[in-house]
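Support request from a user on the community tier.

User writes: "When I paste my structure tokens into the form, the page sometimes reloads and wipes my input. The last time it worked, I copied everything first. Here is what I submitted, just in case something in the input itself triggers the reload:"
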């Protein structure tokens, strides 16, 4: 999981959208609860925005250089799958710099 410490090198911003109470957002809520502190500790200058709104479909958004953004829908994913989706978004950011 060394890629976690390189998130801020490849992303300008990370946004997680979720609903506070819907079953579809439960894994996203669990991911935030279990991983936010670690991600922020490893990437202290990276803006990690958690947007909670009733009825919102859980999503993960990455903003890269020049305003380019990529998003992933998280509904139905486990916490491990959400972590893998984040890793893939980080890899996209690395490939954009090459």
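"...and here is what came back when it finally went through:"
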């Amino acid at each position: 999981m060394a890629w976690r410490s390189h998130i801020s090198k490849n992303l300008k911003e990370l946004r997680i959208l979720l609903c506070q109470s819907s079953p579809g957002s439960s894994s996203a809520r669990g991911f935030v609860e279990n991983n936010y502190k670690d991600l922020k500790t490893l990437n202290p200058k990276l803006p990690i925005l958690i947007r909670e709104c009733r009825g919102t479909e859980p999503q993960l958004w990455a903003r890269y250089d020049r305003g380019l953004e990529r998003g992933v829908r998280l509904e139905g994913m486990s916490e491990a799958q959400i972590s893998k989706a984040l890793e893939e978004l980080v890899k996209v950011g690395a490939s954009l710099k090459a």
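Agent notes: The reload is a front-end session timeout and is unrelated to the input. Helices lie at 7-10, 26-42, 79-97. The longest helix spans residues 79-97. Escalated to web team.
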